[in-house]
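Appendix B. Extra example for self-study. Work through it before the problem class; the solution is given directly after the inputs so you can check yourself.
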Amino acid sequence: MITSLHIGRRNWNGSAPLLWLVAFVLIGLPLLLVLVQAVLPKLFDPVAPSFTPSVAALTRLVSSPRLFRGIVNTILLGLVGATVSTALGTALALVLTLTDLRLRRLWLSLPWVVFATPSYLKGLAWVLLMSPGGYLVYLGVLSPDGASAFFGPPGLLLVMAAALFPVPYFIVRSRLQGLGGEFIDAARMASARPGQTIRRIVVPMLMPAIGLSLLTTFAEVVGDFGMANTIARSMNFGLLTYNIYAATASFPVDFAAAGAQALLLVLLVSGSVAATALGGVDRETRFLSGRNRQLMTYKLGRWQLPALACLALTALIAAVLPLLAIVLRAFTVSLGDALAPGNFSLAAMRSVFDITDVAGQALLWSFVYAFFAAVLAVVFSTLFAYRISLASRATRLLSSGMAMVTVAIPGIILAFGYILLYNRLPGFRDIGLYGSRLLLVIGYVAAALPYCLIFLWAALDRLGASLREASRLSGAGPMQHLRRIVLPLIRRAVAVAFGVTMVRSIFELPMSQFLMPSAGPALPALIVNDFTQDRDAVACALALVALCAVGLVAGIVTLLGKSRHLTTETGS
Amino acid sequence: MNKTILAGTLASCLLGAAASASAADHLVVYSALDTVDAATKAFTAKTGIPVDLVRLSTGELLGKVAAEGDKPQFDVLWVEGSAVMSRLAEQGILKSEPGLADKADYTDLGRRLVPQSQAYFPVSVSTTAIAVNTKKIGEAAPPKSWSDLQNFAGKVAAKDPNLSGPAFQWLAGYFADKGVDAGKAELEKILTNKAISGIPSGGAVNKALITGDAGLAIQQDTSIYALIDQKEPVSVVYPSEGVVAIPSSAGIAAISSHEDQAKAYIQFLLTAEAEKAMLQTEGGDGFFAPVINGVKGKGARVDNTATWQILDDKTASANETDWKQWFRDQFVP
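Solution. Structure tokens for the complete assembly:
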């Protein structure tokens, strides 16, 4: 008995050198190749590459007023944006999980709709809506001066919060679903009022998820490029990611400046991860023991109507208005004539459905890429997250910190790293992957991996150690435990990770641009190219069709899941 | 469940392998111009040579080219702005091809735009002019020169030359005409609103002009003609100081493994047949000024190319980093 336990322990230590190596090649190495140029600016010089070190790019972060302003703006927006969007996401998760709110199914789809709409589309939609000559001014809802006033830090914050609340919502709800009902039942039996129960029982139990949400959203805000390039730019509000983009999209590319600013992002996020760890937010809190009761819901009573009004307002700002702007632009010819009757046309939609056009091909292939990227990312991240969950606390903390850092790094940096790795670095460039469809899929996997890991860790974190001990004492190996016990318990998180990766990959911009296969572009590269070439009607039409296709696929999958569930129930 | 995961993973790997194998050994063209689609279709239809296109906006495309460094993956690069092409030729990334354009029936401007190095060849041309939103400026007299834009300070939109080859071509031409110090001083008096003064793309400049805070824009004329074609309330003004030509040029990679096909491609671009195909393109790039005799630009374009000036690429290229940095520090938030 003692011998078998000893053998069991050796298999349960969470070490996974091969998985770490894969993660390093997928994310670490490409990032390193860009970051190192902050101090080795001539490393990839096409004429005279050299290892001569220089700290000029780093000192310029402080000496250039423009760069320094961008850094300060980014930190401020990150702090406030993370707090507001986490509060919104947490409140939504609490209301939708713990109350009898009406039209629940409709509200459950809201975070997915917002999440599925890429930030560069949302940014553009808000510019179309709120510009002095935009749709809301045209409709008389706003005056031109009122519209201009929107383009300031409060407007940006509103748009950011409305765009980013889905991630905290997913994390908190995932944790909430695993709490089990016994704690809330105990509070009820002790005559605690709903508000007291949520404040003193539920929220403290959710603290790790809230901490994780704050970190993830902070990383999202400071790393977001879509908003920085559209609405923030229109507001004269310089941000770090825009400055990184500007350094990489100019010619000759200023890799040193991009590397120095990316390095700063890494320090910002790793600093906040360390601060959170020191603050104790990541403390052990595991609740799912295998004997949990269902969560009971509270009746909203007279609060039903105000809650519905708040949800409707959130839906209006976060999804309805931006999508409406995209729909209107897709069906109109001229931007200036806005909603004039003669301005409506199907011309842009027709070009999207032209099968001889690259648009149709791009749409189709983007779904194929996204599907395979989602399969690979979910399989890898499930194995990796599981192995890490078995490892020591220090390893878990280090891994989650690294995932956060990767979330904050703008995709453009990772994409550049991929070019340097697979086109310039001896050994890797000989593989011949550069320019292939496979490299684009790998790039999508790398971009989605940190999110998958964060979602899966949030789910794994609530599994009690007793489950593992029970498996181990029954003589099961870690993989058997994963297959038979863990996977059924975290299947929702796996499904969320799959869905998130699919959606992210379909609209993932930097990888699509920089790793464009020579066989043809993916959808996001085409959409953004249309925007920059002033064909925003076609770009909106393309984005609209893609969003509808995502919705259709999601609907079919949900229906299939339901019919399978019904069949299983009937069979049993 | 285990089998499903395994099957999915295997299928992904198989797709990857198949996709890698399907990346055929074709001529690869990198371009930032919309006209590349129509021209390439016509080329393939005529010659049977398949072409793989990588089409991105100028900023992203040049970023990609810079990251690829001395291992470029294109056979042909076709972008706007001669200063950029000049630098790539100096770095040895583009190959000199003497005599390649000898058979081209160039216009006078087209012939003048062929560089001495013959490492890249003008395919079409445009310039930067002033776009005026006639509704927004109301009764005010429209500007006639770059200097007149000082009367509209704070209302003038402009692209960031750091992110746009054509915008840098304009800035370099502006300094060549006014002198660097005087030019800088004048621009500081015109571009006083940072929210609209260093915009990343031509599309965003148009949005600022049509629905945003800008009443006028320093904009590529192809884009202005496209707005006029869309019935937007916009007119074009060619400043009295003169304008600098922005050629779109194509060059061949020094390490191209399809040199003959690449030469055939560029020679085709320099024919009236290709230029006419390019004119079918919808959107801004389709409103170019042709550089081949016998082809007429479309839409409201006026033929005034004979007066356009040619940029001194060497001077522009030598000062590129400094001028771009100055513009960014002055006009980008």
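Self-check: The radius of gyration of chain A is 24 Å. If your reasoning did not lead you there, revisit section 3.
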